[in-house]
Write a structure and sequence with these properties.
InterPro entries: MFS, MFS_DHA3_Transporter, MFS_trans_sf
Radius of gyration: 20 Å
GO molecular function, one term: transmembrane transporter activity
Protein name: MFS transporter
Structural class: mainly alpha
Pfam families: MFS_1
Number of domains: 1
Keywords: Membrane, Transmembrane, Transmembrane helix
């Protein structure tokens, strides 16, 4: 388990090394928010198109190979970003990055969740909380590295990411494939059972929750950069410190559809406040609240979703969800960035409110209406 955690931490650090300033980086080298939105859309389409094949590879054939492919492709993508040969090559790099994330995102979560002896909603949510702790701590340190590299030379952020992912790749070589019964399940039954996941009561809510924060998370750098470049790290630090602190509040959150609806409703308010506040202190405070609420909403919904999934279908089920929310992001991201160019960052950020409202409507029409489960209290990690 230690090596799995090490891989997760190195991966989180590799991402943080460039995401601390990536949108500002593309603006620095002369690209508009609309172009960044197009790149994000290309990333999301590639992710959606390749998510399921990698999940099947992970579940039925080789856990290790899926992760190795993802790391190698991601390093190739970072190399193209570093070279910055043309707009077309940047979009190609985003496509490769999408393929890499398809190989790594759902599979990484599945690899960790599959280690839980009794994977009920409570235990799974605690594990997601622990991952938030680890990822947040790694991201803060790697974000400092990325900001320092950006200050030296903007494109050096990609070299930092390459180095961290190279080490993560070495860790993967030490893994052993986990044998499951899934490779003995006939394909027809495997496909039928996997598709049965989409009929679960929390599937649509999980899909939309994952896509909800796309606008604030795409534009937070632009918002903080309106104050200063150094203020961007304040936002990055707040975002990742919140990831460390937010799981503590799980002890006060009941595992129920009603609590998810409450978190989504509060997120609407927090998103609007973050969009329109201009004073630095209020920007930080509203961003902190929004990030914390988003983390809690995601963790609780993930626990409810994964509770009904067996280990044999874990990566496939996660990938079906990721594939769907990536398609939503592929549409929402360019629209959001165009809104940012035309109407301003404030109105672009508030576009996420529609997705939070959709979460509430889905809960009112589904789990909150028919669920008979008794709420349970989550314990902190």
């Amino acid at each position: 388990m230690t090596r799995i955690y090490a891989f997760y931490v190195l991966s989180a650090a590799g991402v943080a090394c460039f995401t601390v300033v990536d949108v500002v980086y593309f603006q620095t080298i002369g690209y508009s928010l609309a172009f960044v939105g197009i790149m994000t859309s290309a990333f999301s389409v590639a992710l959606a198109a390749t998510e399921l094949p990698f999940a099947v590879l992970f579940d039925r054939y080789s856990n290790k190979l899926a992760l190795q492919i993802g790391n190698f492709v991601r390093i190739a993508a970072f190399s193209l970003f570093f070279l910055n040969l043309s707009p077309e090559m940047l979009i190609t790099a985003q496509v490769l990055a999408g393929i890499a994330v398809a190989a790594l995102s759902g599979t990484s979560n599945a690899l960790i969740i599959n280690q839980i002896p009794t994977p009920d909603a409570k235990a799974i949510a605690r594990m997601f909380g622990r991952l938030e702790y680890l990822g947040g701590a790694a991201a803060i340190l790697a974000g400092l590295l990325g900001l320092w590299l950006f200050h030296i030379k903007p494109e050096f952020i990609w070299l930092g990411a390459i180095g961290l992912y190279a080490v993560a790749t070495l860790v993967v070589f030490s893994f052993k494939d986990v044998d499951t019964a899934v490779d003995r399940i006939p394909w027809k039954r495997y496909v039928r059972d996997s598709l049965g996941v989409v009929q679960g009561p929390y599937t649509l809510v999980y899909i939309v929750t994952n896509a909800c924060a796309v606008a604030p998370f795409l534009l937070w750098q632009v918002k903080f950069d309106m104050v200063s470049l150094g203020f961007i790290f304040v936002g990055f630090f707040v975002m990742n410190m919140t990831a460390l602190v937010a799981p503590f509040f799980l002890r006060f959150i009941k595992v129920s559809a009603g609590r998810v609806a409450l978190l989504a409703s509060l997120n609407v308010v927090a998103t609007i406040l973050f969009a329109f506040f201009n004073q630095p202190v209020l920007i930080v405070a509203s961003f902190l609240i929004h990030v914390g609420l988003q983390i809690l909403q995601t963790i609780v919904v993930a626990g409810l979703f994964h509770e009904r999934i067996s280990n044999e279908y874990r990566a496939t089920s996660e990938s079906l969800v990721s594939m769907a929310d990536s398609l939503i992001v592929a549409v929402v991201a360019p629209v959001t960035m165009i809104l940012g160019d035309v109407w301003g960052v404030e109105w672009a950020i508030t576009s996420s409110c529609a997705l939070y409202a959709l979460c509430v409507l889905l809960l009112l029409a589904g789990p909150m209406r028919r669920s008979q489960r008794q709420p349970r209290i989550l314990e902190a990690s």
